[in-house]
Structures are given as structure tokens and as C-alpha cells.
Amino acid sequence: MNVSEAQSILGVSSTASSGEIKTAFKKKAAKLHPDVNKAENAEDEFKKLNEAFQLLTNPPAPPMGVYSDPIFTQEFFTGFQTVFGKSSNNIKARISISLEEAVKGTKKDISFTRSARCSKCKQGLVVENKQTKTCSHCRGSGTAKETYSAKVTIPPRFIGGALCLNKQGDYIHIFNIHTDAFVFVTIEKDPSGELIVENGAVLSILKLTLLEALKGCNKKVKTILGQRTLKIPGPVHNGDKVVSQGLGLAKNKSHTFLINIVYPDNLDGIINFLEGSEEQDGYIDNESKE
Ligand SMILES: [Zn+2]
Question: Is residue 25 classed exposed, middle or buried when 0-12, 13-18 and 19+ CB atoms within 10 A define those classes?
Fold first, then answer.
């Protein structure tokens, strides 16, 4: 990229002052920020814009005592690119809640470190003895680290994942915006091990006697909402699934009961009965064919 290409990317003339270049950069960069621009090429466009900006604003080091714009600092660009490139950096806290808390909803204390507006300066600059200087507190970055604490509300029947704290993330000085912060919530396993919860759907094994499986039955079952009576239509097979809509962790998720038939200890009576009925049906086994 040469200087005139850089000028055309930023949309500035060859006589533009550093202030005009900075304003043009801010304007264009704000449009390419991932919070507002979801286009696939936005990141590439931003990289070009960044390159153009660096090219036009990296003159030889200024003589001592002359104001140096904090925007040029490497620290700023490193910080910004991290925020830009990886949205996972917006996950500021990770918490885990019990299955019961996920069902009923809960409140949790969280705290994390974030970039905030520096309280000692205005955009990295201070005026001392009528002279504009780089803020020594934030070294011109316009931001300072602070600890943010809050109580977050987990709604009832929450299936886990990221909770968005609107505009509670890092302050980005150049855009004068606060990013969103995310709290990642993991749901702990059912302590009894009976209910397996995956993405809000619930699975459990339902043991039935042979008679219950053949005739059907009303069976008391454990669900995340407590005990319920489940109607099993007869006959069901081993491995069949009976699905109860609305009994998942979220209201639109289901609870699947996997049928596991427990055979009686003594099967002699049933075997004799079945053999008898097969003979009656005129069924001939292999041996008697000869
Ligand atoms: Zn400052």
C-alpha cells in the first residue's frame, strides 16, 4: 500500500492534517466494528483501514516535548485487535449453577476486570499549564482497568450458555463505546445421576416390568419439575422412547424416557405359556420337520 492508496481508503486529501486523518479513521472504523458490522469482509476492510491509518500517521518520531498522539501507540492497537478478532474475549465471567437453580432461576454475584474510561483525563489527554499533555495515569490510552461487580439474574428454566450484560464490557476509547459483556453459565449435573440434561432436553431411563410394558401403565416418574405421572401406552419395547413435550429444562424442550424392561426372575411360566400358544398356532420347529 502506498500513501495515495492509503489516502483514498481513508477518504482524505494529500493535505489532510493528522486531526482530519484521525477523524476519518474513527468514522470508518466505527462502521466496521463487529458490534455494528456483521459483514464477512468487515475484518479485512478494517485491517486495510488500519494499515492505511498507520501509514499516514507514522511520521518520524516527534522531537522531545512535542505532543504525541496516544492513538499511535502500539498498546492501543494490540488491545483493539484482541477485542475485534475474538468475540470470546467478551466472555468476562464463567459461573456454574445447580440443575435446581436452572429450573427455578437464581441470582448470582459476579465480578470481572474491564477497561473503563480513565477518570483523570479526557480521551487520554490532560491540560496542564495551558499545555496539552498525555495523561500519565492511563499513559494516553484513555482507559483504565476497573473491577466490575454485579448480581446477575438467571431466569427460571434457563438452559445454560451466555448471558449478555448490555454495554457492561470494555470501554473502547476510540469509538467511545462500551462493548457487551457475556457471562457464561454452565449447569451442573443432576446429583442423583438420574436426569441427563443436554442443551435443555432431558433424558432418563424408565424401568418397566414386563407386564407394565405389555399392558401399558401410568407410571410415577422423576422430572426436573418434580414427580409426574406418565402414561405409557402398551405395548412398548425395550429401547422405545416415550417423549413428554414441555418437560425439558426450557418450556419448549422435551423429556425423553428410554424404556428399559426388567424381566421377572422366574420366566418358566411365561415360556411354557408361549410354547403352548405356538403349538396351537400350528408352528413347527426345525427338529420336527424331518
Ligand atoms: Zn487518563
Answer: buried
What is the 103 CA–ligand 1 centroid distance (Å)? 45
> How many structural domains is the chain composed of?
2
Q: Are both 94 and 140 inside the same structural domain?
A: yes
pLDDT tens, 26-79? 788 777 766 667 777 777 787 787 777 777 776 433 333 333 333 333 333 333
In a domain, 19, yes or no: no
How far apart are the CA of 117 and the centre of ligand 1, in A?
8
CA of 18 to the centre of ligand 1 (A): 21
* Domain end point (choices 137, 169, 188): 188
Segments forming the whole domain that contains residue 203: 196-262
Per the listing, cell 477485542 goes with: 83
Cell of 92: 468476562
Supply the pTM of this predicted model. Answer: 0.60
